[in-house]
């Protein structure tokens, strides 16, 4: 073996179980995926059509982005923020990023140094964890309370803050548990953030997707805004996971530091993706498409819950209030979640994600994405039913 001298940063970073499972399943042709959290619908066709038209009239769209295009998109984001969060940010407070993930990484790089502590709600999105390790910060796991529908343990949160705590990273609605915070919980978190002068990195990739419960964003609290880095994604709401574009909203001083990181690893998101999002945000068909996706996710949520309800010996779960995941506890199988997820791939030909990738409290669970039409959900569950039958769990 060649003796490379890698940094600790890259040696210590855990691999995301999501990629592992997708690769593990690739040896089979006939697998049904409830794995990766990508809407299995195509990007709305008018977005491609408009982009193609634009390519005919503007030969620069294959080049690095221009200030003009960035400004046009940022102006639309300002309007979108006004609509969603009821305030008007300045253009200097918006920064365009390579997906939500680009903003999250740049924000962590801007605030976290070696051994700084980052509060990580457990379980949540595994890529946050990997990013914390890349900054050489230390994740402090604050477990969500499963028996209360994966609520945040506010007492534990308060007790977990130390002089080394720099950041709380919050995903609302949460991936994988679908937890949506109440206004009261958000206010309590805000109190803690302000009391200890922390930064709240707020991942609202699924902000558009709540069901019966309404989202109360921490951004609704003006006194908190100087301490927030909002990381938003266009991936989910417009079925654009492959276009790799999102944005950050934060105080302009924070934005300038985020720019110092993001510019030097990515320069900017792709110009073509900026144009695609300009179309999605400015054309009424964008909003319509998003509403249609939402209706589909709502139907799929109903379908997956009905199928799970028929398998009480195999799984227990809480109905998610937001996002498009079920975080199910598997019963009567004494193995870790990687082994169980691999077993489901090998024997049922269904891809799910091991719960432990989201943090230690996720052990004993699997994440199932229902970002697909109901036909795929039924196809997956017909297979899972047969699996349950084989083990006498039906
Ligand atoms: C909570 C959360 N944040 C961020 C991302 C990444 O989003 P993007 O595709 O915009 O980078 C995902 C993707 O699944 C996610 O679930």
TrEMBL record:
<keyword id="KW-0663">Pyridoxal phosphate</keyword>
<comment type="similarity">
    <text>Belongs to the class-I pyridoxal-phosphate-dependent aminotransferase family.</text>
</comment>
<dbReference type="InterPro" id="IPR004838">
    <property type="entry name" value="NHTrfase_class1_PyrdxlP-BS"/>
</dbReference>
<keyword id="KW-0032">Aminotransferase</keyword>
<dbReference type="InterPro" id="IPR015422">
    <property type="entry name" value="PyrdxlP-dep_Trfase_small"/>
</dbReference>
<feature type="domain" description="Aminotransferase class I/classII large">
    <location>
        <begin position="30"/>
        <end position="384"/>
    </location>
</feature>
<dbReference type="InterPro" id="IPR015424">
    <property type="entry name" value="PyrdxlP-dep_Trfase"/>
</dbReference>
<protein>
    <recommendedName>
        <fullName>Aminotransferase</fullName>
        <ecNumber>2.6.1.-</ecNumber>
    </recommendedName>
</protein>
<dbReference type="GO" id="GO:0030170">
    <property type="term" value="F:pyridoxal phosphate binding"/>
</dbReference>
<dbReference type="InterPro" id="IPR015421">
    <property type="entry name" value="PyrdxlP-dep_Trfase_major"/>
</dbReference>
<keyword id="KW-0808">Transferase</keyword>
<dbReference type="Pfam" id="PF00155">
    <property type="entry name" value="Aminotran_1_2"/>
</dbReference>
<keyword id="KW-0472">Membrane</keyword>
<feature type="transmembrane region" description="Helical">
    <location>
        <begin position="94"/>
        <end position="112"/>
    </location>
</feature>
<keyword id="KW-0812">Transmembrane</keyword>
<dbReference type="InterPro" id="IPR050596">
    <property type="entry name" value="AspAT/PAT-like"/>
</dbReference>
<dbReference type="GO" id="GO:0006520">
    <property type="term" value="P:amino acid metabolic process"/>
</dbReference>
<dbReference type="GO" id="GO:0008483">
    <property type="term" value="F:transaminase activity"/>
</dbReference>
<dbReference type="InterPro" id="IPR004839">
    <property type="entry name" value="Aminotransferase_I/II_large"/>
</dbReference>
<keyword id="KW-1133">Transmembrane helix</keyword>
